[in-house]
Amino acid sequence: MEEPLKGLILAGGFATRLRPLSCSKPKLLFPIVGTPLIDYMSDWLDRGNVGEVILAVNHLSDKLRMEVAARKMGDRMALSVEETPLGTGGPLRLAASMMPGREPVVVVNGDIVSDIDLNGLTRAHMVSGAEATIAVFSVGDARPFGLVTLDSRDQITGFEEKSPKAQGPGWINAGVYVLNHSVIGMIPEGRAVSLEREIFPVLANRMKLRGWRHNGFWYDIGKIKDYVATNMDLLKRGDQLLPDMRNDVSRAADVQQPSHVGGHCVIAREAKVGPYAILSPKVEVKSGSIIRDTILFEETTIDEDCCVEGAVIGEGTRIGRGTSIGKGSVIAGEVVIAEHSAVKPGSIVLN
Ligand code: GTP
After folding, report:
1. Averaged pLDDT, 179-197
2. Domain match, 211 and 305 both
3. Would 275 disulfide with which of 17, 171, 256, 335, CB 3.0-4.6 Å?
């Protein structure tokens, strides 16, 4: 087996499109079918022969620091904290001294869920002579993404970021890269730099940027709609991303599949959970409540006789007895909703 490569997870964005859920939780800790994304990523990087990992952080960095410590990941993961946000390129320059040596570095966006074969990607990079290799993924509408144009030998000849002109199918930047140290040297120091807008187009012009086509699954959780779709899709696939812990589901509770009940959840008698209910660990659903087509973050409590449908509810929130939550609502973490409330469809409830 080859020496493990070093990795860097870009995890410092403000995640404005995931507000209000991201006001109290960094994207890397968002639950994906009940499992925080950081656990899933750690496992994926491990399988891809990525050893030490740097978390490039800014927004809510203390929460990430605490989670890394709580998971005893400190041997493998170190934090590089930005005083001001440095974009997607600046964090690499800032962390350069933490990545000595000449081996290429694996860089991933901290908001994707994918089974990209990192071993295949790094092998392809090593033999190609490129300075950077980008995993690319085929989508039906490339507009929200970075559109990549490839020639027949997978050399990237064009790179266009989030362009309205990109309507229709195309290969897009999947947010997973293998970069030579020379690329880190191209990044100006001390300011925010966009890899996608400032560095990749230059490499493409020099014919030093390659694409590596990924054919498995790939999701970007950057918007609430996409975050929900990712969870529901993975739930439907039925893959258990990571093993979960015990839970306590009353025999009289009605859990309709597909649903996911995380570790240490308590579901009371005569509660109806599912289909399409995703309960993160330590959720409590009390008697007579109905939870359908909904994602509950950890440690939420749904009191008796509530009806929650088509919603996302942040961590530690309590929904008081007899409340109904309308479809498409998003409720921030650590909120208390009073008894017998009626939350209208499409509401955003802030903390
Ligand atoms: P929005 O505000 O909703 O656009 O989200 P975002 O701030 O996360 O930006 P975007 O989705 O474009 O970011 C892609 C990846 O880069 C995510 O994993 C972000 O955490 C990360 N990222 C974005 N900006 C920064 C930054 O300034 N520093 C670091 N370390 N990571 C960043």
Report:
1. 96
2. no
3. 256
